[in-house]
Amino acid sequence: MRIALTGGNGFIGSRIAVQLQREGVETVAIGRQPVAGLPFHRCDLLAEPLEPMIAAVRPTHLLHTAWVSDRRRLWAGTENLEWVAASLRLILAFRAAGGTRAVIAGSCAEYDWSESLLDEATTPLRPSTVYGRSKRALFDLLTQTPELRPLSIGWGRIFFAFGPNDKPDRLLSQIIDGVAAGRIVDCSEGLQIRPFIHVDDAARALVALLSSRVEGAVNIALDETMAVRDLANLAASHAGTTDLLRFGSRPLQAGEPPLLRAKVERLSKEVGFRPLYSIGEGVRATVAERLA
Amino acid sequence: MRIALTGGNGFIGSRIAVQLQREGVETVAIGRQPVAGLPFHRCDLLAEPLEPMIAAVRPTHLLHTAWVSDRRRLWAGTENLEWVAASLRLILAFRAAGGTRAVIAGSCAEYDWSESLLDEATTPLRPSTVYGRSKRALFDLLTQTPELRPLSIGWGRIFFAFGPNDKPDRLLSQIIDGVAAGRIVDCSEGLQIRPFIHVDDAARALVALLSSRVEGAVNIALDETMAVRDLANLAASHAGTTDLLRFGSRPLQAGEPPLLRAKVERLSKEVGFRPLYSIGEGVRATVAERLA
Questions:
Q1: ipTM score of the complex?
Q2: CB-CB under 8 Å, B95 with A147
Q3: DSSP H helices in chain B
Q4: Per the confidence metrics, is the pTM higher than 0.90?
């Protein structure tokens, strides 16, 4: 097994890189910037021909987590269409060179969020953003083209991942950094309930999916949910105090349903994945690592 | 107006090329092979960076009809995924250079064929082939990404086009060539009813769509249908005799519903298109030109 990893400097990809390095799995990071601790092959996936890169790296496995890196451009930017094109080219080049197994990072944003239990087998794919539609289009093309065989393709639909390496503008980072600095932190009412997952569990689940033979969509999520308000209070409390949180001082973003849960049977039974953290344990570990 | 035309050697694209040339519209053909009568810029859309081509050609309008050229690979081949990637790259490069209007050749194969009246506004897109899913994915991405504005995009869903330049293995060509040579021609029962359209009307409709400001999906079809058996008899009769047709000696292909019709209000009212041929007139013209 020789893995090509894209997005190795990203939020989840960087934790995958650490894990693969620690486990001694032969891995080459592919991208514009080197990834700490991993052999590296420089390649701009958006702009360069990919066949020479694949011929040089000779991966048997592909773990493709690279996507739009500018978060402000993630939901609506035309960069999503560039990544659909680059991802198709990458997987076709990988397959043409004899690659056997690929896992691509999908998203819970592919689902119709008017259903509260998001199930790989039954929930319609009706994304409401350019990001969701782009991931969904790629999913359709890669998992409904029988001629791609013998390449085996798993598609990890990542749910609400959080972790110590979150960007400073993300809620949990704002809370941890704000409380540690003695600042007031504005929050929404926070009544919406989500299946949060620690970034290291999301990373481990994607690696487990890659090592398995499970094909098609697999939710990357815990069978546990928490209200945003409880998550915020927990993080603030671990960081020192909940007194600085101001719930209701921010509006809820449009299109945020009250409850989302993830069906996790494929991940637990077919892939055989066991998480390291409950949501509460994950929050504690996140605060500890971010403040260390 | 300066048009970049892809697929100018294809079944419909070659008739578009003739029409644009005759009308004196400034047009540059883009592709691997020169197109008779048009200025030509050589570019392998599947393999090359497209920005230099766009910078050299400087089109204001793009008419993109290129797709998988090997018909045996059209319905299931992974080449469809290559063309999704190439089409996204082409349209993004065209837009980035200030292109104002693009029309892309879509297909009635994007629709759910369990409905008999295929309507742009109401018929679900539930394609049953890799080809249909690829066109549909591209359609979704190009018409549901508001950030592509100010680029204006029309999507022509082409229905059952026939013409004198059809490949020899297509039914009408087999009939015309077969009857002219005195050969028996095997046909299915031919009871299925379809909205056939002469290739020159399909070409003219795509050019009309390009010249309009109509956005989104537009059926490229006639408001008229004919049973395959009647089409075959008509062609054979114009070619000399119907005695050589053997109906029922070939199975109907799987997934062929008895009746398909096209809603044509967008094309006739919004685009303002008027066909040159009824189906019967189109068949007569096709036989005459093929035997000329």
A1: 0.94
A2: no
A3: 13-22, 51-57, 79-96, 130-143, 171-181, 199-211, 228-239, 265, 279-291
A4: yes
